[in-house]
Amino acid sequence: MFVDDMVLMAESAEGLEKNLGVMSEVLRRWQLKVYWKKTKLMRVARQKGPCEVRIGDQGLEQVDERKYLGVVISADGNMEKEAEARIANATRMIGGMSEVVLRRNELSKNTKLKVVNATMITMLMYGCETWNLLKKLQSEKSPEH
């Protein structure tokens, strides 16, 4: 059995190596395996810089961006790409439901709004509570623009 979709945090590279070692031992006891070549490392900080971490003889690849549980996470904390991806997905969805739902005369406006709110708005706003938007992006994406 393999481990999937885990996040491990530490305040230093040394702390992360220690935590990885402990996690690896616990998972080994539970007969779970980690494919270390697929494991990625992201240093989340205001300033970019290398962070070298090894587990055994395997070095972990450092990345600046990663998709985790459907959300794009950036090493600098910028959520612009995530917000843009959400907007693009919602736009595609509204285009796809245009013929099927929105242009159908037999459906009431209330029904159409319920479908849009249940699907498109949910997709658009998933994870928005954690977005750290720049003023520039807020003004570009605001409804009055």
**Largest sheet data:** 2 strands, parallel
Strand fraction: 5-15%
Any low-confidence stretches, pLDDT <50, length ≥5?
none
Strand order of the largest sheet: 1-4
Helical fraction equals 40-55%
Distance between the termini: 50 Å
Number of strands: 6
Order of helices and strands: HEEEEEEHHH
Radius of gyration: 21 Å
Described by the principal axes of the CA atoms, the overall outline is elongated
Category from helices, strands and their pairing:
alpha+beta
Q: Summarize model confidence as the mean pLDDT.
A: 81
Distinct helical segment count: 4
Description:
This protein is of the alpha+beta class and 145 residues long. It has helices spanning 13-29, 80-102, 109-125, 135-141; strands at residues 40-41, 54-55, 58-59, 61-62, 65-68, 71-74. It has a two-stranded parallel ribbon. A hairpin with a 2-residue loop joins β2 (54-55) and β3. The protein is elongated and about 65 Å long.
In short:
By secondary structure, the protein is α+β, with helices and mostly antiparallel strands. The protein contains 4 helices and 6 strands, in the order αββββββααα.
